[in-house]
Structures are given as structure tokens and as C-alpha cells.
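Readers of this paper often ask what the protein records in our data store actually look like. Below, we set out a record of this kind in full and without editing:
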Amino acid sequence: MEYKELISVAGYGIETIGVLVIIVGSALASFRFLSHFREEPEGLAYEEFRRKLGRSIILGLEFLIAGDIIRTVIVADTLTNVMILGLIILIRTFLSFTLHLEIEGRWPWESARQVDNK
């Protein structure tokens, strides 16, 4: 197998892991929510569900970004492909930040103490 083909397969493999992380994380969060939502105080099960679902999406996005970087920079190294990669990374990073803000109630670069002091 040629070097570029091997790297391309590795990139697709990492992207596949990202998709699996999102699928499995979503399924586990949903299962936990459906099996425990009547046992926990009102709203607590839903908040926990959103937190677990969001974390699995964020982790999956990180794998998807890594796979894109590997495939684009190593395999398809044209300026157009690098610009498309940059746009994809910007969109996915924005999604990650907004999901983190939604889940944690603070930006990723803020510590919990900074938020408590506001």
C-alpha cells in the first residue's frame, strides 16, 4: 500500500472513530435517561442527559477534525483543500465551543472559579 493511501485510510479510520463515539455516546446517554428519568428529581435527569450527549458530540467532533486534518494536509495538499479544511475546522470548533458553553455554562478557557465570581 502506498504511503498516501495508508495515511488516507488512517484519516478515515479516525473519522469513523469520531462517528462511533457520537453514536455510542448518544445511545448510552439516551438509555441512561430513559431508564432513570423517573427516579431522579424533575429536570435533573434531563440536564444530565444533555451534558452526556453534548460531551459525546464534542469528543466525536474532535476525532472528526483530526481525521480531516490528516487526510487534507497529507493526502490532498492543494491550497483549495487546505482552505476547505480551515473552514470545516472553524465550523466544528465553533460547534464545540457553543456545545461546551451550553453544557458547562462557561467558555472552555474560563475556570469554574471565574464563573462563580461573576
